[in-house]
């Protein structure tokens, strides 16, 4: 176990596109990044999808903390040596014609991690951010990290709502001067993927991987962030 394992939590957010294609490339990208926590968007769905997600997790040295059921378009994978408590899924309100969405959350080594995958419609994003803020973020008894695909550029309403008024959360990539585009993966132009970090967790670094496999593994590039854990 190295120094990063002891005092630093590495959070990676990545849209896996349902593991429909280029799974070997996805495994390569995740293994190279060596995350402690992988915030997944678009995991494979259904019973067979859960089996495929567990196999993917095993190939990357991770385990599934939250997947399937109410997590819907999200999942949370964690390395075996990290403590996981309160792992659960939150179903988000759904309207016919839209994708059924959810959120995955767990406390990892004392940090509440929330995985989100917001919708394509601004009105839906607004409703879901409001619910997530009330149910999972406000009143938390410890530091919080929100990671996921916001389907919105920095400075959009969802970003503003989640970091409102200089509150507890800040955009780790901006703090670390790593505000690089993540979408589309082959020729990235915009950043819609985010790791928002509690101000009680110092940001040690952030980067968007750019190895060859990243351009073909998914339609998104991942974002990787290191934060310093609070003293136990």
TrEMBL record:
Entry superkingdom: Bacteria
InterPro entries in the cross-refs: Endo/exonu/phosph_ase_sf (IPR036691), Endo/exonuclease/phosphatase (IPR005135), GPI-anchor_lipid_remodeler (IPR051916)
Pfam families, sorted: Exo_endo_phos
Transmembrane regions: none
Endonuclease/exonuclease/phosphatase domain mapped to chain residues: 12-220
Protein name, as recorded: Endonuclease/exonuclease/phosphatase domain-containing protein
């Amino acid at each position: 176990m190295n120094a990063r394992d002891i005092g630093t939590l590495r959070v990676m957010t990545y849209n896996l596109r349902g593991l429909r294609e280029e799974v070997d490339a996805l495994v390569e990208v995740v293994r190279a990044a060596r995350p402690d926590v992988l915030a997944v968007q678009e995991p494979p769905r259904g019973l067979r999808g859960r089996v495929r997600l567990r196999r993917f997790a095993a190939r990357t040295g991770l385990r599934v903390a939250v997947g399937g059921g109410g997590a819907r378009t999200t999942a949370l994978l964690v390395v075996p040596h990290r403590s996981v408590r309160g792992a659960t899924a939150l179903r988000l309100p759904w309207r016919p014609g839209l994708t059924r969405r959810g959120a995955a959350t767990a406390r990892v080594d004392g940090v509440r991690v929330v995985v989100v995958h917001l919708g394509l419609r601004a009105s839906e994003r607004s409703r879901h951010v409001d619910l997530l803020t009330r149910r999972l973020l406000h009143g938390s008894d410890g530091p919080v990290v929100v990671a996921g695909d916001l389907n919105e550029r920095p400075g959009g309403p969802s970003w503003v709502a989640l970091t409102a008024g200089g509150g507890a959360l800040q955009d780790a990539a901006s703090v670390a001067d790593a505000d690089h585009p993540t979408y589309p993966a082959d020729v990235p132009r915009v950043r819609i993927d985010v790791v928002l970090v509690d101000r009680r967790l110092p940001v040690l670094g952030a980067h968007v991987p750019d190895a060859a496999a990243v351009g073909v593994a998914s339609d998104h590039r991942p974002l990787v962030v290191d934060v310093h854990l609070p003293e136990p």
